[in-house]
Task: inverse folding
């Protein structure tokens, strides 16, 4: 017996509209939540047009589809993920099977390369593929086990249903972040900073995973059912807290020579959505923790992708570089009840740029008033003048049993209740 996919009927309407507009094969992503028993598909979004395609988009571009999936994955809160891909084509379903298999493996490989959280034993490893014939509207659903490179297609059940997520619960929390990442001496700037940040974020992600999660102020047993998720057609919000104990450090861990450091500090808003089929406390904790790790890692990666952080000349000109990480802004998915997606707003961006991205990436028609920009503040860097003499004096006074980069990083102030980063170069002192 294959897997069963319960699909929001708005997805059927969306695919039907794409069939009516067909001008060549159309690919896209299927978004939802996987559980051990069944999967829920709540959204679908077509692959954006590639204006640089040599054949004008008449063939399927695996790299383009995968990059779209990577960008969309960043815009999904906890509990929502890219479950698979679809293709609308007049070709026979058997003829598109190889293409769909290549797409689903390519998409999953790229998305998983950015994940820092540890997969769980009960995580579903099947990804879905859907072929739709635009003339007959016949659908053929199959799955592949993306952890098995030799996996063959398995038939799956695809059922449309109304109000799939109308009674899903949302669990949310705010968390303070304070990371210090040492940078090696004589580093190749962008590559090594990227590697150092990723390794330190992995350590931090493990702390998050070991944290104690309180739901409505209580530590619930893992198998405790969340009553909020069982109330029909009622939007339920669950408050959570995450208590984190920093790892114990030894002198061997922290005494080291370095060429500088990166400081990431501030506060974030995290949320995760839970299906209404008797959700357990264990699931709420897992999805919320994963969202915390993913949203911080996404913002750090976005900062590294910005041109100003890739400019190695900055290292020779300034001793301290300060950056504002983007804040998280949410947008309700109107057709799905309580669900929302998100995007990240840099301080020099307006809300109109975000509505454009929602349209391009998720094919959503969102107005500026639909955006919830109240959950996080915009980061504002507070400039502080630090001379080379002051920084050198700060270095000499460091406690040898503490990180030799903490004192210098403290010379750079950033606003709290927003996520920001500062880069300090010690090698230039």
Result:
């Amino acid at each position: 017996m294959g897997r069963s996919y319960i699909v929001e009927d708005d997805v059927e309407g969306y695919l039907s509209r794409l069939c009516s507009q067909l001008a060549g094969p159309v690919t896209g992503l299927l978004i939802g939540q996987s559980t051990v028993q069944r999967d829920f598909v709540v959204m679908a979004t077509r692959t954006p047009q590639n204006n640089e395609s040599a054949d004008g988009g008449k063939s399927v571009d695996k790299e383009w589809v995968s990059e779209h999936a990577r960008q969309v994955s960043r815009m999904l809160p906890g509990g929502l993920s890219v479950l698979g891909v679809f293709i609308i084509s007049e070709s026979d379903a058997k003829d598109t099977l190889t293409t769909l298999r290549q797409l689903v493996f390519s998409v999953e490989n790229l998305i998983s390369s950015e994940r820092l959280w540890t997969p769980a034993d009960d995580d579903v490893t099947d990804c879905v593929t859907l072929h739709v014939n635009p003339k007959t509207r016949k659908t053929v659903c199959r799955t592949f086990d993306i952890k098995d490179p030799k996996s063959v297609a398995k038939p799956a059940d695809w059922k449309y249903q109304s109000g799939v997520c109308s009674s899903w619960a949302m669990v949310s929390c705010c968390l303070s972040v304070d990371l210090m990442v040492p940078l090696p001496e004589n580093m190749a700037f962008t590559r090594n900073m990227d590697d150092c940040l990723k390794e330190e974020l992995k350590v931090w992600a493990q702390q998050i995973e070991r944290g104690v999660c309180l739901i409505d102020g209580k530590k619930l047993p893992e198998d405790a059912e969340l009553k909020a998720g069982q109330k029909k057609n009622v939007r339920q919000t669950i408050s959570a807290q995450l208590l984190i104990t920093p790892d114990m450090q030894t002198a061997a861990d922290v005494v080291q020579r370095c060429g500088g450091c990166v400081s990431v500090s501030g506060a974030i808003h995290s949320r995760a959505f839970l299906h209404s089929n008797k959700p357990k406390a264990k699931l709420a904790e897992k999805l919320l923790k994963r969202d915390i790790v993913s949203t911080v890692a996404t913002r750090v990666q976005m900062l590294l992708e910005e041109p100003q952080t890739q400019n190695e000349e900055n290292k020779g000109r300034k001793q301290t570089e300060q950056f504002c990480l983007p804040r998280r802004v949410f947008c309700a998915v109107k057709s799905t009840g309580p669900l929302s997606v998100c995007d990240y707003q840099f301080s020099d961006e307006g809300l109109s740029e975000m509505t454009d991205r929602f349209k391009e990436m998720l094919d959503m028609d969102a107005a500026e008033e639909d955006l919830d920009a109240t959950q996080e503040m915009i980061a504002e860097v507070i400039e502080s003048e630090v001379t080379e003499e002051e920084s050198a004096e700060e270095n000499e006074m460091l406690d040898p049993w503490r990180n030799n980069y903490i004192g210098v990083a403290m010379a750079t102030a950033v606003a709290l209740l927003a996520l920001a980063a500062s880069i300090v170069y010690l090698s230039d002192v």
